[in-house]
Amino acid sequence: MQPLGSDPINAAQWRALDAIGKRWSPPHEDDWLLAIDDTDNLTSRGTGFLARQLALRMAEAGIAEVKAITRHQLLVDPRIPYTSHNSSACLVLPSIVDRQTIFDYTCRYLPEESAEGSDAGTVLVQRKDLPDVVQQFGRAAKEQVLTQADARKLIVGHKIDMAGLTGTHGGVIGALAAVGLNASGCDGRFLWLKQLRGMSAECWKAGALEQATGVTIQSKLGAEVVINAEDSIELGEWPRAVFLQGQATLLVEKVDEGDFNGWRAASKNYIKRF
């Protein structure tokens, strides 16, 4: 197995989460979606790091299981205060001890761990309780400037826990958008998925790779392109899945060079479009 990047703290976090986290499985109505946003500043670790750390700590405490963390890109606009990319993160929890424990834990965690000057916010909801209007809100957040008032009005009458925790509390907008976009099953990329990143630089048969990780392998050209179970998949240095049609999807491109004829995971630059 290849090393998980050059940052030893980040690598240790990934390995610990791989050891305790659950294998990916498709979305289920009983899954809990826990989103966080606007936790960082220009010199701190990003929201993705804090999302993985939060997932790890809850799993170690025995209060939640985690099977995925997704990243969702929102509108980049000078009217919106953001650190660098205006993205938010959503943890997918197939099992929790109870909603109040998880929400309270997150509401303690974010003020303690978020960077100075952040405007952290969080949202917790069970997938089956998430109304379609929140998915619409998520899509709108990719194209429009939304407000806290928009977010707070939207959750009235629904089983959605929301809290602003630092600064202006503006992170509630991105957090609510993240649960909506995750629930759509067709937005963003995975900030953590059990085992996949640790397989970087390895070569697997497509069927074995899908069995080991739960991912669906798909050509960049579309699902109609056939990839056989015995086809070879080179995972490259930055294998990441994206969220398409409710599946953790590893996009690949055809390679025919030298003695290798098979598929290679899509490049980092390509996946960062998601």
H/I helix tally: 8
Average pLDDT, rounded to a whole number, is: 92
Give the N-terminus to C-terminus distance in angstroms: 26 Å
Broad shape: globular
**Helix-and-strand structural type:** alpha+beta
Largest sheet: 6 strands, antiparallel
Low-confidence spans: none
The strand order across the widest sheet is 7-6-1-4-3-8
Total number of β-strand segments? 14
Instruction: Return Rg in Å.
Output: 18 Å
The helix fraction, in percent, is 25-40%
Compressed to H and E, one letter per element, the order equals HEHEEEEHEHHEHEEHEEEEEH
What proportion strand?
Answer: 15-25%
Describe, in plain words, how this protein is organized in 3D:
It is a single chain. The protein has about 270 residues and is α+β, with helices and mostly antiparallel strands. It is built from eight helices and 14 strands. The chain has helices at about 10-20, 45-60, 100-115, 130-140, 150-155, 170-185, 205-215, 270; strands at about 30-35, 65, 70-75, 85-95, 95, 120-125, 160-165, 190, 205, 215-220, 230-235, 240-245, 245-255, 260-265. The strands form three sheets. The protein has a six-stranded antiparallel beta sheet with strand order 7-6-1-4-3-8, sandwiched between helices. The longest helix has 15 residues, at about 100-115. The mean pLDDT is about 90.
